[in-house]
Design brief:
Shape: globular
CATH architecture: 2-Layer Sandwich
Number of helices: 3
Distance between the termini: 51 Å
Order of helices and strands: HEEEEHEEH
Largest sheet: 6 strands, antiparallel
Structural class: alpha+beta
Helix content: 40-55%
Oligomer: single chain
CATH class: Alpha Beta
Number of strands: 6
């Protein structure tokens, strides 16, 4: 893929993703940074909203969805949460994964899809967004309860 083709693909994906965020994200939560190929927004989920950041990395040919969980892990719960994240990744997730920064006490869900030499459809991008929201919604409470015990 030439640089020009990669730039065109990035622009196309950004516009498609912006349309999806405009349709699905809570209106007052949307943040758009076209220069950095970043979209952010809050999405309605149970038991609480899920914040998703979508970033397009043209240099790597990747589109990534990130959701930083809205709580920090206290140092005393670090080992327990690390084990839980590994268990969820290994047993339950077939796409995406949880990352845990022990130093920062932050947990992040990440789902990336390559687009170099590919055409990603609007439906696939929306499906990946919905998958991110539902996965984070499903495990947020379990992780949060682990740090509260």
């Amino acid at each position: 893929m030439t640089r020009e083709e990669l730039n065109a693909a990035t622009s196309r994906l950004f516009n498609i993703s912006r349309d999806i965020f405009d349709k699905l994200a809570q209106k007052d939560s949307r943040i758009t940074n076209e220069e950095k190929n970043v979209l952010e927004g809050d999405f309605t989920a149970d038991p609480f909203n899920v914040h998703v950041k979508l970033t397009i990395y043209p240099e790597n040919g990747l589109l990534s969805f990130f959701s930083l969980l809205p709580f920090d892990v206290p140092p005393a719960k670090s080992n327990e949460v690390a084990k839980l994240a590994c268990t969820i990744n290994y047993n339950d997730l077939y796409a995406g994964n949880y990352d845990y920064s022990v130093e920062q006490g932050k947990i992040l869900f990440r789902l990336s899809i390559p687009f170099r030499n590919s055409i990603l459809s609007k439906d696939l991008i929306e499906e990946c967004l919905q998958y991110t929201i539902s996965t984070v919604s499903k495990y947020n409470n379990k992780i949060f309860e682990t740090i509260r015990e």
